[in-house]
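Give me structure tokens for this 215-residue protein.
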Amino acid sequence: MYNIIILGAGGMGRETCEVAEDAFANNPNCQIKGFLSDVLDVLDGFEEYPPLLGTIKDYEIQPNDRFILAIGDVEGRRKVAEDILKRGGEFVNLIHPMAKVDKRVELGRGVIIFPFCHVGANAKLGDFTLLNLHATIGHDVILGQFSELAPFSVLGGATVTGEECYFGMHASVAQKVKLGNRVVISQGSVTQKDQPDDVLVLGVPGKTLRKIGMS
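Here you go.
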């Protein structure tokens, strides 16, 4: 029996809990144990959810624990995942039964795929990537680890991304585009050309506006 623990109990954590309840509903070997969050009052007013077990940093990992990374902030996701891995924790992939994932897709660890997503043939999703509602990954896409697609975002076939990229709601990337690390494609924006590290793309067609971080 695996005890599923959701890391993060904010809005993303509660949404992820719903996905987990559906995904593990018919799996007698998995039960949702609860949440971990460093904000101890985050579930106040949300009593219908599994319990808050304590803080992430203070939790003592048990042999049967399996973790799901439900933190929306891309940089924060990496820090928490690396902390849990360093302490010997193990992650599971979470795929909603109403997502369509081609059988030839290669998945890293700790991947989350929400309902109504589509992941095309021979795509590769790196560790701790997250696809929110209705996100689409085309064939042969390589999605770098810790990257996140917001609802209705699309990566065209053979797109290659770096790590920690974020695609806002309804963002689109044309086929065969290559993106660096920590690229953000803003909500509703479209990029049709390669992008370097640490940039924000905004508009249709997308324009590279400014640096957004430090390597």
